[in-house]
Fold these 2 entries.
Entry 1:
Amino acid sequence: MATISDVATLAGVSTATVSRALNGKATVDPELSARVVAAAEELGYRPNGPARNLRKQETAVLALIISDVENPFFTAIARGVEDVAHAAGYSLVLCNSDDEPDKEREYVDVALQERVAGVLLSPTGNTDTTELLDRNTTPVVAVDRPLPERTSDTVLLDNRLAAEEATLHLARRGYRRIGCLPGPSGILTADERLAGYRDGLRSAELPGSTTLVRRSRFKAEGARQSARSLLDRPDPPDALLVANNVMAVGVLQTLADLGLRPGRDIGVVAFDDAPWTTLLDPPLTVVAQPAYDMGAVAAQLLLDRLTAPGEPPTTQTLSAKLVVRGSTTR
Amino acid sequence: MATISDVATLAGVSTATVSRALNGKATVDPELSARVVAAAEELGYRPNGPARNLRKQETAVLALIISDVENPFFTAIARGVEDVAHAAGYSLVLCNSDDEPDKEREYVDVALQERVAGVLLSPTGNTDTTELLDRNTTPVVAVDRPLPERTSDTVLLDNRLAAEEATLHLARRGYRRIGCLPGPSGILTADERLAGYRDGLRSAELPGSTTLVRRSRFKAEGARQSARSLLDRPDPPDALLVANNVMAVGVLQTLADLGLRPGRDIGVVAFDDAPWTTLLDPPLTVVAQPAYDMGAVAAQLLLDRLTAPGEPPTTQTLSAKLVVRGSTTR
DNA sequence: TTGTACGCGTTATCAT
DNA sequence: ATGATAACGCGTACAA
């Protein structure tokens, strides 16, 4: 592949002039500049990124490490991040940690080694990752969940309040035995949603009971098992609060298998307003998270940090919106 | 951030020894090696990627440029690619071209500049991209669609056959006026699906008619408009073949708006077996693409190319599977 | 086995 | 305005 000195030779100038011409630096003689551009074009010259990054000690690349590329919530975040990053001249690379602490650590490691300008992360809770980040000065923004044992710029959702609202909504609709599938313990969004669920039960003066809670991974399969185990009880729940849209798929499949119709037979609220939720009969009541905005805000926070490294970290908490549909109407 | 010479100084050895010890090269005195490792750990040393890549003239990073991160089909491809890449010691970075030729070109440019080991791409059809790739030796694998005007390793699906089968299925189920929403013209998958649809009509001895075809982007909104425009006709179709799952959402919403029940009132087949398609009532008949496998095969093709650069490019064509469900049962 | 020294391709500094 | 050259951090050929 052609290098800068190939271009220089062809254009009959020095490498310094090529660099200046191609980067629009200083004042370069228009004629020379034209020669350089022509030569670069002819050779298909493309600056060597590693060399440039090495020399400049910086890159225009941001890394976003999300826990599930197949979850529309996270891909919507990615869109938000990308739009903002792109507008500011940064490229975004996406990595999928699959909610596995090891993979997360690995990708953070790669990002750090490649000296990306900044990292956006929806942490699994791996303290190794935190430690890794602590030892470096690369700016980090946590999205959706905070970093464990570390302050950083953070974009969160008020999960607790959202879960409480959803639970209260179910109670107001007359459901009395409300179950909850909050997701895995140890992940803050899951724990918060569980706490909010309990708040809601308390406010509604409904009896809380751990027998109505089943924890699992944020996957369809886990949710299927949890739902099945709840509904097979002698005293099954008459409503379910489900922690995300991937789990919702599992739950709804289980309900269908059991011949239970959402709304009439069992109230259902799930987090995330996926496009398909309106297609169901009845359509699904959801807690809509402003995923795109969360991504956009996170990216902006990171960009701000890059230009003003001194400032103290901030946490922005966005609000969800309950979208009431048929699955909570008897 | 600590450099290799910082480590060398702390361990009381030369940088060469540090390099050798950390990379497990040659034979290094165990005691020295231990000192090096300890020093590296103490300093939180992390090799400088750009410097290493510059020196080695290679990276262990693959780039996957897909046209829609919010489409489960492409994210499933990404999973397939990632699993294979990861197992071979490569990291994967994901870029979202949003089916915009300019963005695609830009990301290819970035990937080339960063000297990634290889590129996987679901091309928009941008010939600028092809030209860019042609001028470089970086291995490329096209996924889902071929590169325009260029041979390369390619992983395709037999879209034409799949569309024909789907159309024939509709015909056998008694639908007579079958419409088609194949996606944008100029994108091969769309054109092939349209061709297969016409094949199917011919085989079934049904009259083909361009008035039953509406082209749009691979988006829900485009599909909504297309569906509406078809169904508002005095002689509307009694069945629809829809080119992907994102468009299917738009179509199904439109049917619901019009009070049309899939299966009974109008047959519906869509490409892509998204998780939610079984939740509908009636569940959706789909053309299931082996997306994960397509990604895995593509990654393997790329890895093979990296180890054996000389070989002629190959094209692998996988087959789709028609999954019959209620939306094609009257 | 270990250390010295060079070069990867680029940008920035310093003369000219 | 332009050119020569040093330096970024690393790996490796060569010398010891």
Entry 2:
Amino acid sequence: MIRSRLKNLLDQCFQQGVEQGLWSAAAANLYNLESPRHDGQGDFATNFAMLVAGKERRKPREVAEQLAELLRRDTTLLDKVEIAGPGFVNLFLKPTVWSSVLAPIAEQQERFGLCDLGKGMKVMVEFVSANPTGPLTVGHGRNAVLGDAVARLLTAVGYDVTREYYFNDAGRQMRVLAASLKARYLEKLGLPNEFPEDGYQGGYMYDIAQSMIDEAGDGFKDADANVFRKRAQEAIFADIDTTLKRIGIIFDSYYNEHDLYEKGLIEDVVAELRGKGLVYEQDDATWFKTTEFGQPQDRVIIKNTGEPTYRLPDIAYHREKFRRGFERMVNVFGADHIATVPDVLAGIEALGYDKSKVQVLMYQFVTLLRGGKQVKMSTRKASYITVDELVDEVGIDAFRFFFLLRKSDSQLEFDLELAKSQSQENPVYYVQYAHARLCSIERLAEERGIALPEPASTDLSHLQEAEEYQLLKTLAAYPGLVADAAETLAPHRLIFFLMELAGQFHSFYNKHKVMTEEAQLTAARLCLCQGIKTALANGLALVGVSAPERM
RNA sequence: GCGCCAAUAGCUCAGCUGGAUAGAGCAACGGCCUUCUAAGCCGUAGGCCGCAGGUUCGAAUCCUGCUUGGCGCACCA
């Protein structure tokens, strides 16, 4: 808001300079307006002069002086304009400008920070998408939290977001699952059984077997593999769903790979690719000419058994996303899954769709430490930590916050002992505590019979302390930060912002009293506090973390 | 061998489209509760931003090469 007003002013001055022949239009849209890191460098600074000087082989300070001259004519925003360093033009705002952020916050409340950047565009966020072979584990947890936060952010900036879960309940994996369940079932009945070599060893298989025994005794002992597959799938999927709901993640739709087969969409894709001459037969298999799309080698899409590889349904699925009208698609994938992406992109490109509309948000692995040692995880071997176990230990808020604390393409180290022992000093509490403190101040005001003031009708010029000034600046940056975090699919940026805002508030709180003897100062500070509280609450909501009123 | 990701303080990590003296949190050390919640605050100490070149007025940030670590490289998903 304030920043964009200033940017407009800068653009105007640039134009005026062009008209007056001070400089050419060569640097249009190249210069930027940034926030200097150090004190004494103004509220904003621009590298304008250095860029213009670079283009025109002039002295930066000379250009800076000309720009400063134009800027100084403004009387609404600027207090003073200085030239510093190699040619920065530092802009100092009038003291009252910053406090003008509070009125809009009070007015917008929970809408503060939202915008319409997405213009209602339909976007799909596909995430989790775990096949129903076992409980969600730590890696899925990162996927789930990341995908959900991205979905919330995109919604906040005006996209029409659909959260979708894509799964497959057929194929080899599920056959092994069925065989594993059957073996456990027979084992429990004391009957001879053959547990598959690469079977799923998790204890949950025994639970499902027991439920079958409870229901029908040994009535399933001669049942078809399909029966076991269905039982296993349904039970496991129900658990996954429960886990997701528990951490506050609700999907708008589930897409079963099976549908693609039923609707004949798989054959359609093959026929269409064949029509374009991009498919050929070799060694009894069907190949897709991915080399035509810059891949190092062609890939099999139908095996010699007649069964498609994962690529084919994936391509068909993505085509369905386009057909369903999504204009932007975000897929959240773990690093191990990433190799499949180029093939799918090649497929949709081959089918005539714009692959740049598909965006992959890749996250690196979660390294799990127990007692300082790395735990190797495998769903089959049942050596894993589940999302539920993790949530039991650290709580939902810490669980979500922790997974968003690092950018997605960094590996994340999750030390179980540390997570447990830190549960009292986890960064999430730092932010939540700031919110609780703010609520506490409001309660006190109420007790003392002080009505919460409206910023629009309060004299905010009393906010003159450095800490107050800093807080106002940070609040003003919030909407832009949300937009940035959404566009770059980077929820961790929001997390860091919240920690910074909370930190600034804690400092302020320790140094200055809100409830003072002076009614006007108190009123102004209460306005500031309400603004901070709103920003914290809104930011926490955007990452799915609660904002407690008491702690 | 090829591809993707990473490399910043003792540890775990930020650093937005390149900008002016490098930032947190833990851990270490020293302070602050008769005053709005000490799950807090203040201070000290700690860094050839993996290495070497290049582009630029200016590089942790961009480019190239190299080193180290992770993940992939199926007619598994």
